[in-house]
Specification:
heterodimer; A: about 250 residues; mainly alpha; Arc Repressor Mutant, subunit A; 3-stranded antiparallel sheet; two-stranded antiparallel sheet; 8 helices; about 50% helix; about 10% strand; elongated; B: about 190 residues; alpha+beta; 2 domains; two-stranded antiparallel ribbon; 9 helices
Chain lengths: ~250, ~190
């Protein structure tokens, strides 16, 4: 029996977080375990328990060990005190039908003792079986990694050169504070049209000719045309756009 | 070895769990149950008598290839195999009750052990050693628990019949008497006055 209860009982009690009290038992697996321990200490036969003495010892034990708030132990303490009282009741020696009030407790202790024996059998058996390893089972990884490469140095260098040669240019990321500036383009076009009756597409585009400026200008032109501030004209397919000032449409 | 024995060896090697004789029989449509048994015997002999570090073990209703105990320490030291974490005393006691009384409800387990069992039952369930096998007809239809194949694997048992008979223990495990489980029974049977 590997129960630490047989050697040195060690207890730690910890204040519970919310529900009152939590007992962490390093020593005893429960009140029956503690009771068996007391009986063993006193070298008492389970079948003939001196209830009064054991009940007192049990109460003292759970008090000193700080278990007197643990429900399981309190319940057993209650049973023992009730038994103690029952045993104190006088009875006629020849009384028929008298049943030893300790019977139920004795039955439970014997039953629990047997469970302890089975538990230690299971433990020994599991320890023995733990010495036999099955094949290590690993679930298949979601992506199977490529097999390790087998190459020589020349091949490696060739591969590196090939990769380097394929790099077009160092690609730098440009941070554009305002990618599209439709308002700016609108203002520019309106200013130009205030001076000129007609402007060319390239004039409207302004000095900067990035994609963002081009798109801004295009959106501004379309927006102004929709509002009716200007008139877009393309003399021939793919010819440059001609932008002409337009009299505002009568509002509706 | 016969081709069937080789086939079984391959299957047992590939499967990381105990494989039943019925499953092994599906390897070869022409093989009978007796053929499979003969092949298993041959395979077992092969491992036993030719100095192999693994053995063919009958376990949890099936067959499995396991390393021999003599090599456990070295394999574990090299961190190539992991031992199962040990069970606590509470877990072992709870397993004991369940293995002998299954299907058994939480109330009966708590009655026998004298402590509440909720946390232990959850832990054992998470480790796959017990499972819910049904519901009792009693009030509240409480869940009933039983042991799993993994329980047998952990102990290296073929089946539950390999658990020691309770007569082999010092104390016979009596089935609970219907009237004696009542905690009031003992006190009530005492004469109130003489």
């Amino acid at each position: 029996m590997t129960s630490p209860a047989a050697s040195a009982p060690g207890f730690t009690t910890a204040p519970g977080s919310e529900s009152g009290f939590v007992v962490s038992l390093d020593g005893f697996a429960g009140p029956l375990d503690l009771l068996l321990y007391l009986l063993r200490e006193e070298k008492i036969e389970i079948a003939d328990i001196p209830v009064a003495r054991i009940a007192d010892q049990f109460l003292q034990a759970i008090h000193t060990l700080g278990l007197n708030q643990a429900a399981d132990y309190l319940e057993m303490a209650g049973r023992l005190v009730r038994l103690k009282v029952a045993m104190l009741l006088p009875r006629r020696p020849d009384e028929e039908g008298w049943e030893d009030p300790r019977h139920e407790l004795v039955r439970r202790l014997l039953e629990y003792q047997q469970i302890r024996e089975i538990a230690s059998w299971l433990e020994r058996r599991a320890e023995r079986q733990a010495l036999r390893f099955p094949r290590g089972y690993l679930p298949a990884p979601p992506d199977i990694p490529p097999p390790p490469l087998v190459i020589d140095l020349a091949e490696l260098l060739r591969a590196v050169e090939k990769i380097i040669s394929e790099i077009p240019q160092p690609v730098l990321h440009r941070v554009v504070p305002r990618p599209l500036d439709v308002e700016g383009a609108t203002r520019r076009i309106e200013a130009l049209l205030a001076e000129h009756e007609e402007i060319a597409w390239l004039d409207a585009l302004g000095p900067e000719r990035t994609i963002a400026d081009l798109l801004s200008t295009l959106i501004a032109l379309l927006e102004l045309a929709r509002r009716g501030g200007l008139h877009l004209h393309q003399p021939a397919p793919f010819a440059p756009l001609v932008i002409r000032r337009d009299a505002p449409r009568p509002t509706d | 070895m016969t081709p069937l024995a080789q086939l079984i060896e391959a299957a047992l090697f590939a499967a990381a769990r105990p494989v039943t004789a019925e499953e092994l029989q599906t390897l070869d449509p022409d093989a009978s149950a007796a053929d499979v048994r003969t092949a298993l015997d041959q395979l077992k002999e092969h491992y036993d008598f030719e100095g192999h570090a693994i053995e063919l073990v009958e376990i949890a209703g099936g067959y499995q290839l396991l390393t021999r105990p003599a090599f456990a320490a070295a394999v574990e030291r090299a961190q190539l195999g992991l031992r199962q974490p040990r069970l606590t005393q509470a877990a072992l006691e709870t397993l004991s009750v369940i293995s002998y009384r299954q299907p058994v409800g939480r109330a009966e387990i708590e009655e026998i052990r004298g402590v509440s069992a909720g946390g232990v039952l959850r832990t054992l369930q998470e480790r796959g050693l017990i499972e819910v096998v049904g519901r009792s007809e009693a009030l509240g239809r409480p869940l009933l628990y039983g042991t799993t194949n993994q329980f047998l694997e952990m102990l290296g048992l073929r089946d539950l019949g390999e658990l020691p008979r309770t007569e082999e223990f010092a104390v016979a495990l009596q089935p609970p008497k219907p009237d004696s489980t009542d905690s009031e029974g003992a006190a009530a049977s005492v004469p109130a006055e003489s």
